[in-house]
Amino acid sequence: MERRIRQLLSSLNVPWKYPEHAGRLSAIRQLLELEPVPGLRFEIGKAATREQLGRVHTSSYLSHIFDLRGKNAWLDVDTTAVSTGSIDAAEVAAGTAIAAVEAVIQGRSESAFALVRPPGHHAEPARARGFCLFNNVAVAAAHAQAELGCRRVMIVDWDAHHGNGTQDIFYADPDVLFFDIHRASPFYPGTGQLEEIGVGLGEGTTVNVPMPAGAGDQAYLKAFNEILVPAADWFQPDLILVSAGFDPHPFDLALNVSFEGFAAMTGILQEVARRHCKGQLVFVLEGGYHLISLSRGVRTVLEALAGGTLQEPSITGLAEVEAAAAFHRQAFVSDDPD
Ligand SMILES: [Zn+2]
User: Fold this and answer.
1) How large is the C-alpha radius of gyration of the chain?
2) In a domain, 4, yes or no
3) Residue 115: which of 237, 27, 54 has the closest Cα?
4) pLDDT tens digits, 230-257
5) How many structural domains are present in the chain?
6) Distance of CA 308 from the midpoint of ligand 1 (Å)
7) CA distance 265 to 283
8) Average pLDDT over residues 217-239
9) pLDDT at 79 over 90
10) For 104-138, what is each residue's pLDDT tens digit?
11) Which segments of the protein form a coiled coil according to its record (predicted)?
């Protein structure tokens, strides 16, 4: 679809801008400098090794991607392109997701947020898709299992788009519970139907909740409370990872989750993590392309993680209607009810 939009725009002579760019992280950094979150501490990331990437990607795929280092190329019809710094950035994105998990497992912090790009959840074992080269959250989960003593890892994906790559990687794995709430097909990438529940030993450890366009806080929180929480209590994870995209915010035009909604979802995950795994909760950035909702969304989650008071999500306009109803209440009351 993006390609059709590009063609359309080129015929209109409007420059098309690749939506996944370094300005996304600068916007987040700027907001966090402008409005610091009390209790937040920064650590530096690092590049993932080939061995770490090789736990979830095939060796031939990695060779193909590393051959593109320093080049410009199109990889996929779904607008996955690389420029001269992309491979280095993707290595650091995956390595930083690992570093965030290490910070939590080694006890330097109860929770962490890997602020990385390019995103990862569309990347499959042998295929780049949807801006994603390496599946950052999957690399982090596999590392936690292989090196850090975590047997069961739960991955929660609330990005607006289904995490097809993450699902693919762990589809037959009973030790990774993948919960994904997303806008339903035919929205990109088209996967994530209710019936996709895993296969073989992994049957039952993939949970998809497809949502209609415009779904918002009430629906998301109901899904968290009534599906995610019981699933997590059954699975008893040793670590919870979150593929956190901020494109469910209305500014990205697909869904209707508010900042208070993101904070409330974070609060639920924090409770679940404290109940099962000493609060060990690691966020990894996925999508979110409107710079205001992206940066504000990240800050809201960080504030919730750092123990800030959560504002209850409300239905927009409800308080105003109640006030207006009270204001007008007497206007249409007849003096003589008989
Ligand atoms: Zn997305």
Assistant:
1) 21
2) no
3) 27
4) 999 999 999 999 999 999 999 999 999 9
5) 1
6) 26
7) 12
8) 98
9) no
10) 999 999 999 999 999 999 999 999 999 999 999 99
11) none
Is 122 catalytic? The answer is yes
Q: What are the structure tokens assigned to 215, written together?
A: 């779904």
CATH of the domain at 279: 3.40.800.20
> Rounded to whole angstroms, what are the CA distances from 130 to 205, 287, 334?
24, 10, 62
**323 inside domain:** no
Is residue 30 one of the residues assigned to a domain?
yes
What is the pLDDT at residue 321? 95
Write out the two tokens for 328.
């007008």
CA of 298 to the centre of ligand 1 (A): 14
Tell me the CA–centroid distance for residue 159 and ligand 1, in Å.
Answer: 5
Please list the alpha-helical segments (H only) found in the chain: 2-12, 23-34, 50-53, 59-66, 86-105, 136-147, 164-170, 217-223, 229-235, 259-276, 291-305, 318-328
* Ligand 1 centroid to residue 288 C-alpha, Å: 6
DSSP labels, 220-245: HHHHIIIIIHHHHHHH--SEEEEEE-
pTM score: 0.92
Containing domain of residue 55, as a range?
Answer: 19-313
Q: Which residues contact 35 (CB under 8 A, 6 or more apart)?
A: 299
Residue 297 is assigned to a structural domain of this protein: yes
Measured torsion, CA atoms of residues 86, 88, 94, 97, in degrees rounded to the nearest 10: -110
Tens digit of each residue's pLDDT (9 = 90 or more) over 14-69: 556 788 999 999 999 999 999 999 999 999 999 999 999 999 999 999 999 999 99
Measured distance CA(26)–CA(225) in Å, rounded: 34
Tell me how crowded residue 82 is: count the other CB atoms within 10 A of its CB: 21
- Identify the active-site residue in 122, 182, 249, 290: 122
Mean pLDDT of all residues in 176-202: 98
Distance (Å, rounded) from C-alpha 317 to C-alpha 306? 29
- For residue 132, the cross-strand partners are 129
Coil, strand, or helix at residue 146?
A: helix
Q: How far is the CA of 44 from the centre of ligand 1 (A)?
A: 25
Q: Name 285's bridge partners.
A: 244
Task: Using alpha carbons, select from 49, 175, 50, 153 the residue that is nearest to residue 105.
Answer: 153
Residue matched to tokens 């979802």 = 265
